[in-house]
Amino acid sequence: MTAFSLLLLVCHVSSAVKHTLKYYTTASSGVENQPEFVIVALVDGVQAAYCDGSNKILEAKQEWGRKVFDSDPQLYQRYSVECFENQPNLFKATISSLKQRFNHSTGVHTFQSVEGCEWDDTTGEVAGSVHYDYNGEDFIAFDVSTLTWVALKQQAFLTKLSWDVQRARLKYNQRFITQICPERLKTYLQHGRSSLLRTDRPSVSLLQKTPSSAVSCHTTGFYPDRALMFWSKDGEEIHEGVEHGEILPNHDGTFQMSVDLNVSSVQEEDWRKYHCVFQFIGAEDAIFTKLDKTLIRTNWVKPYHVTVPVVAAAVVVLALVAMATAGGYLVHKQRKEAADSTELPEATNLNTAS
């Protein structure tokens, strides 16, 4: 059986992906040389837009983000009004009130929100959230199922009472999560299809320098870089004896990553219990590669016996030179052995009413 056929038997892939649009809003006081109000919009973890309310800067960060603004000038205008006027004033008033409530008169203080949605491009299912922090700690969150606010700490209860009676705002947050945000997300995906919807599956290799070395699960050629990889035993992720490498770029714009497993204490009969797992973040399924000696690529060669693995690791050249004479001279033999070994590879957001 070929190496490719073996790999197909131990690997499974699904391309279903959940896409996200999130707005991160930060208001601050007491921070020198930094804008007091900033909003960053991320689509699938990629920065799409940036707003500096203090310096009146609003710009798209990607070509497809600029196309969204160009196709809907009114959206750009709404973003500008919210970012430069409405939201900075709201956040400034809120952070001032919280400083008094917490008896914070001096120092650096922040009020932040994370608002957004998630859309499953296979099932069409939508989910979302609106969440606020004060000084980096959970403060209050919106419950879309009950249309109420949930105080995440005692000092947030007064804010909950105040915000719970703002019916228009509650209804808007519900519409933002279920309609406005998903529609904007789909618009971004439409204009950024070539990059945001691009998914390149990786090739997977098991690598080992010597029998006593760790087995490295190496993936390369995948895109985007929103991926994770780990070793599992009996279907459960393991951490002991595992060393994770960084995600590195390839010259063609794709990415590569490795995760090593120390097999020195793994009994041979237990190898089949281990799998290297690669998964795109947001994808439902993953690629599973079984820990199998027949799949391991190595540059190690036994001294007098070379076993060629599934992907050839060495080429042995034997040269026999026989010299003899007709007058009873002894036969002299010389033997040369050379091996070429393979080298191991490598937020309140722009949340505006539409």
Automatic annotation (TrEMBL):
Signal sequence interval, chain numbering: 1-16
Membrane spanning residue stretches: 306-331
The keyword rRNA-binding appears for this protein: no
Keywords noted in UniProt: Glycoprotein, Membrane, Signal, Transmembrane, Transmembrane helix
Stretches assigned to the Ig-like domain: 202-276
Listed GO biological process terms: immune response
Gene Ontology CC terms, in alphabetical order: external side of plasma membrane; extracellular space
InterPro entries: Ig-like_dom (IPR007110), Ig-like_dom_sf (IPR036179), Ig-like_fold (IPR013783), Ig_C1-set (IPR003597), MHC_class-I_related (IPR050208), MHC_I-like_Ag-recog (IPR011161), MHC_I-like_Ag-recog_sf (IPR037055), MHC_I/II-like_Ag-recog (IPR011162)
Statement: the UniProt record of this protein carries the keyword Membrane: yes
Stored Gene3D superfamilies: Immunoglobulins, MHC class I-like antigen recognition-like
Family: Belongs to the MHC class I family.
PANTHER family: MHC CLASS I ANTIGEN TRANSCRIPT VARIANT 1-RELATED, MHC CLASS I-RELATED
Protein name in UniProt: Major histocompatibility complex class I-related gene protein-like
Organism name: Parambassis ranga
Classification of source organism: Eukaryota, Metazoa, Chordata, Craniata, Vertebrata
